[in-house]
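Researcher: Next entry in the queue.
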Amino acid sequence: MIYLFRVFSGGGGDYLEFNNRQSLIEAYLEHRDSRLYDWSTVPIKQAIQEEGRLSKIYSLRAMQNLGDKMVVRVLVKGQLEWYSPSNAHGIPSEYNVAVKFFTHACTHYKLTTCHHEVFEIAKESRFKALSQEVIQSILKRVEGTRCDSKLDLYLNMNLRKLRNYGVESLKVKGSYVDIKDAIAQQPVSCPFFSQFLLNLMDVCITKEIELVGKQRVYEKVI
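Model: Structure for this entry, 222 residues:
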């Protein structure tokens, strides 16, 4: 999942949630005004005809003289720029343009690229409340699962993250209750992740009884 946390000048904020980079681009394409935001490749002759700024026309002709037949057309907030595909360094991707579209009215924003970054962003005061909302929404989704194996896989994924927060090794054999007690005794350096993991264990304890009807024994090694 990708989360985009946004804070606006009035002090309010929100967050947007996307399954991956492609779904963020698709949402941008659905909501953008193409007169203000666009990313495309066009024939360089078309670019020269479209461009009205003399300096940019000179730049386009220089690209043409170097052999470029196509150019990358990038429009952000109505400001048009051209890039040579033969010099890929520095060309904004369509994903970059999509992020600019969703953040154009923000005073501050944070974009996660992986799951645990939510807990790091929660340390910043301006994003703390938004991050807590995301953490609660994640727990709600876990509560809705109907598959006990998926529940345990998700728990394992989060247990491995303990290494990122000061827990060098941990080996526990027992029920989810035993595992939770062991985690509670660990010196986890990120309080937001620690609390999330304990809350996740509570969900696992409840869901296991609901889905399986009993407590089972697990062996977890970090």
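Model: The two ends are 24 Å apart (CA to CA).
Researcher: Noted, moving on.
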